[in-house]
Amino acid sequence: MGSLAEGGGYSPTSHHLNILEEVLGESTASNSMVRSYTRSFNGFAARLSDEEQQRIAGKKEVLSVFPSRKLQLQTTRSWDFVGLTETAKRNPIVESNIIIGSIDSGIWPESESFSDKSYGPPPKKWKGTCAGGTNFTCNNKLIGARAYGSTSARDEEGHGTHTASTAAGNKVPDVNFYGLAKGIARGGVPSARIAAYKVCSEEGCYDQDILAAFDDAIADGVDLITISIGGEPRAFDSDSIAIGSFHAMEKGILTLQSAGNSGPGATTVSSVTPWLFSIAASSIDRKFISKVSLANGKTLVGNAVNSFTLNGTKFPLVYGKDASSSCSEEEARFCLENCLDSDLVKGKIVVCNEATGRKEAFRAGALGVITLIGEERADVSFVVPLPSSALTAKNYDLVKSFINSTKNSQGSILKSEVIEHTTAPIVASFSSRGPNYIAADILKPDITAPGIDIIAAYSPHASPSGAPGDKRSLKHNVMSGTSMSCPHAAGAAAYLKTFHPDWSPSAIKSALMTTAWPMNATNVYEEGEFAFGAGHINPVKAIEPGLVYETLKEDYIKMLCSIKISFFGTCPKGVKGSPKDLNYPSMQALVESDNSFTVEFPRTVTNVGPAGSTYKAKVNTDSHINVSVKPSTLSFKSSGEKKSFFVTVSGKGLPIKTRVSASIVWSDGIHNVRSPIVVYTES
């Protein structure tokens, strides 16, 4: 996927067909072609056998060939929690000229979040179109829509509507989930415009469609792209999102991607590309709970977004193993699919050893369900299709003990309550962790943002719980995932761009990273910066970061060349260095265990604050490593001036599976520009 050739006389599609004809023959080439990318970068998708793929890959004008894979989709209170309140400083006129491109499962155009009341016409820079299909209408808020692999851009799943409204939805009053968590739902930049690119359906999200969406979004004139989609990490030159976002970066467009929902294990982060802004998920100061009331007087607190009420009436409890005639006892304990007998659960509350048992209990017609969740998963609540509560082991065992010791055990499940979450923000258990599997010396994720129990607009055609048969129709829903945190960061980036419309993608990213709220970094390998990157997003603080780390296309190409990837540009002969040399706002190095080491990070900062500023470096570290900064003072005569420095990290040797954290803070007494430093050994 190289850049388009400049100048007239070149037809990308004809060139693509010529390449296919040389391999397949003239008669079958056009039938093989799936899509030609011609608006923003140069490439095509085609149906090929393994042999044909190899033959095309061998051509000198072809940079890379890789198979298309299927990827998966990965918030009222959340914006107040990160400090972006309704009274925060804003530039509303500039904000209305910001266009956010959402690559997702489409959008529900009739949602109040996308009403164009009081909006003027789209910005003149907009070059896109409304191709949403039959009975789909855009307006001056939702200014564009496109669909790939389907006939309509209408969101039938709710995911794309939720993410788009989180980033830039209008202010909608009196939003709630069946009376819970009432408030104003709004995006980070409510006056901004939205362009929706539907690449996902129930089947998944395919590479060829994702590339087509990037190709269009770049040419259409969006200012930034949010994409809450991911899969297993791939090499940069065979990752559709890495490729598309690189070409977006070339045109000054920042792409933000969800980090993934495969946590809390190490090396699970799927968004690993340095020019992408990779977003982890964390909690806000609001939590949904669902209580279980037993007939013996005990009340147990569990998790669920449960809109149902049993009015405190007690009903029979039945353990899954006693409610099945078709499955083994072990399978029935977990309430696996099609295990529960409807006649054995009717009018009863089923007790299941697995959280997914709620869908089976709902299918079988149970009155309610109590499920078991691990302690590490007790930080998130999900919308349920019937009265439900998920209990951790201690409380769950009390329920089982009550059933075993009582002939006619009974209980009830109460409607959910919303309580204050005093320890927030904490990184979500499901949020994918580093270290970076593809580029070991680049810290990922970059930052964390709200992603647990987020209320935002939703498709009324989609099931709120995801359970087949849940026919409730909602305009707003509660969802959790890095899919929800990514548009929070996108809204923050758009907010920052309203104050600094000429800043590069890397400058915006740097400002958000270096002003983030620091989070607690323990010495557990799987956690710390591997979970939250530079910290928790702080949009208002990022308006005046003082200094930024700017990274240009040439810097990324040099970094890629240092790891023998020439996909995005020609590598000069004898190129030296490593990813540690990339002018990144964070610093990370993988070192050999039990061996002494010295690592150097060259960095350059640009003064975006006042002229005549002097910054001094402060290092925060522990006894495992030594960190020095040279020079330790930077004086800037003018705004826009650049200064370089070196950070040297050394140690006598770290055990296997160790992560040591430090940080450097440049301060002029007003601005504090913080960069995390991570040194680690392999697991």
**Number of helical segments with 4 or more residues:** 17
Give the end-to-end Cα distance, rounded to a whole number of Å. Answer: 34 Å
Give the helix/strand class: alpha/beta
Count structural domains. 4
Helix content: 10-25%
Total beta strands: 35
Shape: globular
CATH architecture of the largest domain: 3-Layer(aba) Sandwich
What low-confidence regions span 5 or more consecutive residues with pLDDT below 50? none
Task: Describe this protein's structure.
The chain folds into four domains: 12-65, Alpha-Beta Plaits, CATH 3.30.70; 72-284 and 426-541, Peptidase S8/S53 domain (Rossmann fold, 3-Layer(aba) Sandwich); 286-418, Glucose Oxidase, domain 1 (3-Layer(bba) Sandwich); 584-680, Immunoglobulin-like, CATH 2.60.40.2310. 53% of the residues are buried. The protein has 683 residues and is of the alpha/beta class. The chain has 17 helices and 35 strands. Strand 1 and strand 2 form a beta hairpin.
